[in-house]
Amino acid sequence: MREKAREFATKAHAGQKRKNSNDDYITHPIRVAERLEREGFSDELVCAGYLHDVVEDTIYEREDIERLFGIKVADMVAAHTEDKSKSWKDRKQHTIDTIKQADKEIKYLIVADKLDNLIGLERDLKMLGPSVWKNFNAGIEEQKWYNESIAQYMKNGLHEHEIPAYFLEYENLVKKVFG
Hints:
The chain is mainly alpha-helical. Helices cover 67% and strands 0% of the residues. The protein has helices spanning 2-12, 27-38, 43-51, 54-57, 62-69, 71-79, 88-101, 104-128, 140-153, 165-178. The longest helix is centred in the middle third of the chain and has 25 residues, at 104-128.
């Protein structure tokens, strides 16, 4: 099932590039899924890692994910899909509200995604400087608010033994990038 999800995501994101680089977009979902896999999470969660941006950024719909990968994977992807018809601030507030009360698998998916994005942003800032912000829908202050909010609420409802190491990596990187 994991390989099928990887192949489907690769097909869905064909031709898309990452912000601030010429990297194929699929490199991001692959890194997210691989992080989830290294943690020993379920096949469904790893598949959601590969597929997490498919509904948001491609022609495919939630129903396609459900038909091919089942309702659990589709529900995880849907929980992390932003409504692009809403403003940047409203979309990010929705993600913050989701992470406050989501079950642990959704939290794991969201933080793995946000960590990979932040690792890329840190790299881009080192290479390109502040000009990277022109490629975002929001500037540094809004990005700081968003990432700090994710870090603040990501552990809500989790027991200490349920918190993966990459949550600490995310917290530390938020502090490093945004001060």
